[in-house]
Amino acid sequence: MIDKSLPSNRRAYSVFAIVSLALLMASIDSTIVAVSLPTMLDDLKTNLAWVGWTIIGYQFSQSIIMPIAGKLSDDLGRKRLFLGAIVLFTGSSAAAGLAPNVYWLILFRIVQGIGGGTFMPSATGIVSDTFGPRRRAAAIGLFGSIFPIGGILGPNIGGLIIDHFSWRWIFFVNVPIGILLLLVGAAVLPRSISAPSRRSVDTTGAGLFSGAVLAILYAMTSLADNPGGIEVTTWVLLVAGGIMLVAFVRHEDRTAQPMIDLTLLRWRPFLAANVYNFIFGAVVFGFFSFIPYYATVAYGMSAGESGLVLTPRSLAMMVASTITSLFIIRFRYRIPMIAGLLIISFSLLLLSRGYRDAVILGFGLHNLVLLALPVMLGGIGMGIANPAANNAALDLVPEKAAAVAGLRGMFRSIGGVVGTAGLVQALSYFPDKAQGLQQIFLYLAFLLTLLIPVVFMIPDTAHERRARIKERSDAILHRDDSARIPEEVSGVEGRPRPQ
Questions:
Q1: Does one domain contain both 352 and 468?
Q2: Does the residue 350 lie in any domain?
Q3: What is the DSSP string of 184-252?
Q4: How far is CA 386 from CA 194, 272, 321, 339, in A?
Q5: Would you say residue 105 lies in a domain?
Q6: d(Cα 339, Cα 185) in Å, to the nearest integer?
Q7: What pTM value is reported for the model?
């Protein structure tokens, strides 16, 4: 709830600018660290198993906090939660820049992910309250363009900073922006009143789920840290994670307001959709996180060059996603999903070949171009597959769109976290990291093709949606024709007017 008087247009746009800058800052920080992995490895004197947690920890805490933050936004007030998230994000950024070792850095990145994950629900609530029902959808829809921009800016800004300064400045740069957002936000954002809702937060479920995933991830890290054998600690963590996962499922079945609606997941089409989301997130998010690292170890590129490699991917994904969205009903859902999977698989196959110093028709291609082209191809595949997969899941239970969107996002994010951890673990068995990544890219290409049978388990409801759209259009035309009848008829009998 906000004050009775809605803000003017100028103030409304100022509110949108503030929350968008916060979302952009969080989006940049989810990609900026990827280019700094080689530098962190040397400076912190650690191994890839632990430095990979600077990505894993941020992604994990961000995905877990988002559904909880949505409820807290209602209970504590939008503005209060948003400003609190800024304080948390800014403070943890400064602390991450000062971290004396990789363990403290991981801790501060987890806290930073909590702050970054809180931005989206509170920002959505603020914009929704500020713009009112008429302009709300357009304003919130513009949020979708912020994350691809962050995907472009993050690696490039990170590369420039690392080439000219220390990796610590990729975190310090957030501090002045955060302070500015805090001061301006306190003055400009509309005052919100806490309005406790009837829906309680499933803290027990969230705790069991978080503990289970963390235990399994930590066991994978322990295994990657000691590839020669499995320690007792690793087995204890795996068993503890399994027990907590079973306890989580039992709790969700019994609680009145669960974190995850298990009745939805037990429905085979919806389960198939989320298996698709989990594996897709594991493969795509996992391997894209390590492209800058691959550029460094395989091609000897600088941080700036390795960040530049990801730019074509983000641009291609934005263009392909826009075009696919325009024609998605005509092509239905399965064709774009399968086409996207095959294109990404082909891009991974090309990356696994490790092409370098190529000459085509007498023209030499720079290694930066040779690496950027398959990465861009992967972005095209993502742009084609994502809109279809998202709509296919939402059309399964349209009356529960919010719950479906939340589950879809969570499975894809957790898949990305597990995929990143799995990639680090697999890479620990290869002394030559460049050769190891090429082998892993080949395995991932094969794994993505195994998702094609899963696609056929997800109902393709695009035809039904197209029919509904046509029915609505016909109804509107019929209503317009009916509205013109009084001009063409006369009297109560409806006879034609005399000419």
A1: yes
A2: yes
A3: HHHHHSPPB-----SPPP-HHHHHHHHHHHHHHHHHHHHHHH-TT---HHHHHHHHHHHHHHHHHHHHH
A4: 36, 15, 7, 11
A5: yes
A6: 44
A7: 0.77
More confident residue, 69 or 107: 107
- Range of the structural domain that residue 176 is part of: 8-190
Alpha helices in 228-333 (DSSP H): 232-254, 262-265, 268-289, 291-299, 303-308, 311-331
Output 224-230 pairs: Cβ under 8 A, ≥24 positions apart.
224/48, 224/49, 224/424, 224/425, 224/427, 224/428, 225/47, 225/49, 225/50, 225/428, 227/428, 227/429
What pLDDT is recorded for position 325?
76
CB 417 within 8 A of CB 60: yes
| Selection from 7-21, 139-153, 261-275 with the highest mean pLDDT | 261-275
Share of the chain above pLDDT 70, in %: 80
Residue 174 and residue 298 in one domain: no
333 phi and psi, to 5 degrees?
Answer: -90, -40
Phi and psi for 489 in degrees, rounded to 5? -125, 165
> What does the pLDDT read at residue 88?
92
- Given a cut of 60, is residue 176 above it in pLDDT? yes
User: Would you state the structure tokens that stand for residue 407, as one six-digit string?
Assistant: 């589950």
